[in-house]
Design goal:
mainly alpha, single chain, 3 helices
Length: 182
Amino acid sequence: MDTTTLIWIIVGVVIVLAIVVVALLLTARGRRERRREHQHDRAEKMREDARETELQARQHEAEAARARADAAAAAAAAEDAKARAAEASMEAERRAGRVDDHRAEAEDLRQQHAEAMRKADDVDPYVDGTDARNAAAPSAAAHMGESAGDRDTVLEGAERRRANTDERPPTPPEGHEHTERT
């Protein structure tokens, strides 16, 4: 082999090596670009996932805040209901006290009425005092809460006593009105 051939072989190998190096350099740059693009795409996907996670976190926070507000509203409604119940209870007690007061006042007025009627019967010469008082006592008891049927029974009993004893009060003269209590 001669030196020229050897030189040409060396030059050929160097050219092939140069082409391979250039090809590697060009492909390395492309691979690097593709790697960068792939990394960029991966980063974008990670960013998108992070945005979605943040959005879900905000939604959960909003739901938690809504649940807290609902719980607070329910607690406030319960407290309001308790307050209204307490007010209603106090009002019922106050009214019950008023009922007792009215009942006692009515009893006093009935007693005053019975006393006034007794005094009027004592003064009236046409009223026999024993029968009128006997009839007045059951009548006052009837007003205290007995039923109308009990009252009728008491009145019928008083009328029977009068009929059995044949004691009737004298009739008042003309022009004088006397109403007997029932």
